[in-house]
Write a structure and sequence with these properties.
By secondary structure, the chain is of the alpha/beta class. The chain is built from 14 helices and 14 strands. Helix 6 crosses helix 7. The longest helix is centred in the last third of the chain and has 20 residues. It comes from Lacticaseibacillus nasuensis JCM 17158. GO terms for molecular function: LPPG:FO 2-phospho-L-lactate transferase activity. It is found in: Cytoplasm. Belongs to the heat shock protein 70 family.
Length: about 350
């Protein structure tokens, strides 16, 4: 998009305010595309991840897992490329601790100790990395994700829940610190951003382990229900093993509504481009199953506006959302909703 085109995308003389809530690999893609299309972006990032480098650091130091936050910071950063390359560098040393760790994760962990929490640490790092927008952890403290399965059993831990291979009935979060006396809560800045947004975007990302952990934080979920912003859910392109096997797009939305106790999703973005047969590398992306099937009648019965288009991007033998196309539709909704409210 040209600079001239960017300057047109304003609401009453300001950039459209978009809050994106989620985690995983899809979040920084959408955040970067929204930023590139001149949105004022706030990313609210899950803090219930316990896998990979983030999980190891969390085991050593009682901090919020930093991996998803690191990638979103880079997506919104205007720092020099060499600074971002160093920040994203992952050690290939054989050292028993450093092997596989990203330098940025270690910096975030160090700043969290220095500043007394992940929230002030990320605001400091945002300034250092010249971030255009806001990156907010969903909570200032580490959270543990819990799942209740359809068979009545329970499991704690994001990675363990996905690996259980059981149908999930519901999820919820608790403070990881057993000495905590208060339920999980989002910082005031997170709530203010949601209430002031033109559009709140959920996803793309794992339904039960990337999106819902955020909404299960009491005051954050309440803000999503009460905000006047348009709530847009980006439906996953593929079903996910251990989470959404056999789900239609409408079943994804129904799970969201069930967890918050009322319908709240206004618009869903649905990919209709076919995934080429045999393109997906099932060994590399072993949690991905089949394309999500569509149930437009059920979506509309839930009060959702359906935007169906080619949102598909194929790369590295994987199936992803095209961030630019998603961002364009999100901003279109922002302007349409604003125009309607002004009438």
């Amino acid at each position: 998009m040209t600079l001239a085109a960017k300057t047109i995308r304003v609401i009453k003389g300001r950039r459209p305010k978009v809050v994106v809530i989620g985690g995983g690999t899809g979040l920084p893609v959408i955040v970067k595309s929204l930023h590139d299309q001149n949105a004022d972006v706030t990313a609210v990032v899950t803090v219930a991840d316990d896998g990979g480098s983030s999980g190891v650091i969390r085991d050593y130091i009682n901090v919020v897992p930093p991996g998803d936050i690191r990638n979103v910071l880079v997506a919104l950063s205007n720092a020099e490329p060499i600074s971002l390359d160093v920040f994203q560098y992952r050690f290939d040393s054989s050292d028993s601790f450093f092997a596989g760790h990203a330098i940025g994760n270690l910096i975030i962990a160090a700043l969290s100790e220095m500043k007394g929490g992940i929230f002030p640490a990320i605001q400091e790092l945002s300034s250092l990395l010249n971030v255009d927008g806001h990156v907010y952890p969903a909570s200032n403290t580490p959270l543990t994700l819990h799942a209740e399965f359809a068979d009545g059993t329970t499991q704690a831990g994001e990675a363990e829940i996905s690996a259980a291979g059981k149908q999930i009935k519901r999820v919820y979060v608790t403070e990881t610190n057993p000495a905590a006396t208060q339920p999980p809560a989002a910082m005031a800045e997170v709530i203010a951003a949601i209430m002031a947004a033109d559009v709140v975007v959920l996803g793309p990302g794992s339904l039960f382990t990337s999106i819902l952990p955020n909404l299960m934080i009491g005051n954050l979920g309440e803000a999503v229900r009460k905000t006047q912003a348009e709530i847009v859910y980006v439906v996953n392109i593929m079903t996910q093993k251990g989470e959404t096997e056999g789900f239609t797009d409408a079943q994804h939305v129904q799970v969201l509504h069930d967890h918050l106790g009322e319908p709240f999703v206004d618009t869903v973005l649905v990919n209709i481009a076919p995934v080429p047969e045999h393109y997906l590398n099932a060994n590399k992306y072993n949690e991905i199953l089949l394309p999500v099937q569509h149930d437009y009648a059920a979506l509309r019965a839930m009060g959702c506006r359906v935007i169906s288009a080619d949102f598909l991007r194929l790369r590295d033998q994987g199936v992803f959302h095209d961030g630019d196309k998603v961002a364009t539709e999100v901003l279109n909704r922002a302007f349409q909703v604003h125009t309607k409210r002004e009438r």
